[in-house]
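Handoff note, outgoing to incoming analyst
You'll be picking up this chain. Sequence as last confirmed:
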Amino acid sequence: MVVDPGVGTLRRPILAEAAGQYFVAPDNGVLSMLYAREKHKVRAVTAEKFFLKPVSDTFHGRDVFAPTAAHLAKGTPVARFGKPIADYCRLEFYKPVRTGKRVWKGAILKVDRFGNLITNFHIAEFPALRTRAFAMTAGQREITALARTFGEQSLGELFLLVGSSGYLEVAANQASAAKMAGAAVGAPVQLEIY
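Most recent structure output, in case you need it:
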């Protein structure tokens, strides 16, 4: 994984083991959601013998991450890449914060190509949404309906949908929720359950 605005800085490359898989990534918090959901082990990748030479200051995806992943896929034991670490970067953006008795503040994690707003609210943490009244504010709009499918709602109406990964999405039947709400990635979202 190379979501790496810190390429060329002192941030270290890491190798994480979780859910029976390996993840090679920069230590910048990009794996935070994985850490929150899965038991994991993390190593600093310090064995430079696996890197392409010379290592560019601006293309670690090619020179560090891809060769490390290739050696891993070839069967190189994980212990040969570096020692386990506990001080890896974990960000808290992925989890809503309680701000009142029944109020939480979260954020838009992603806008998909259809204009659905994927929030950091996971249905497993908010099962009451299925049975109780609620209001979610995203951008300029308030959403008060939860649907199982897009077709359950009228054309152009905003509603919440539980996405395929379990995160709540602000959606609209055959319209862009992002345009309707005037919201983008990083925008705050508030949820109140009555």
